[in-house]
Amino acid sequence: IERGANVESHDAKKGRTPLQIAAKEGHYEIIKELMKRDAIINSTDNHQKTALMHASKAGYLDCVNTLLNCGAGVNMIDDNGYTALHYASKFGHHLIVIELIKAAASIESRDNRDGYAALHFASQYGRKETVLALLSYNARINRRSSKEKITPLMLASREGNKTIVSLLISKGADVNCIDIHGWTALHFASS
After folding, report:
1. What is the pLDDT of residues 100-110, one digit of tens each?
2. Where are the alpha helices (DSSP H) in the chain?
3. Radius of gyration of the chain (CA)
4. Which residue from 113, 141, 162, 190 puts its CA 20 to 30 A from 119's CA?
5. pTM of the full structure
6. Using CA atoms, how far apart are residues 29 and 189, in angstroms rounded to an integer?
């Protein structure tokens, strides 16, 4: 950097900047240094992912907090409509989920593939602590996806996540919600 390295150069393969790579690899000290050198915090790669999304997906809480403190856009979306909260929820990083929500992440934001919110991802992938965190911040337990009207309970049932199914039911999930095909969670559990 001292010799004039471009902190905004994008790699040829994925279009990632040094900031995004540092976030993806968990190097928060490098993130701090790059931010001092005027790296663009919300720069995106070829898939429109930001450094915050990379850190949230990989589970690097220190990087997430550093990026949030530097003003990272918490509700930016990539080319699938995923936000940093979607990634943290899908991969079960509940402490990051909490930090993102505290930083005003939209808890009900939907992706543009299936119309899933964060609770859908956490339920589908069996992320108990993440489900609990999202519910503690009032995620809509019976939220239906925009595409097939699937609820988090249906996804957990389909995947055989008994712990998540029991948890969602104990928190008030409607076992009789139906999707566009007329299936309930019981249909998914039976398939």
Report:
1. 999 999 999 99
2. 18-25, 28-36, 51-58, 61-69, 84-90, 94-102, 118-124, 128-136, 152-158, 162-170, 185-190
3. 18
4. 190
5. 0.95
6. 46
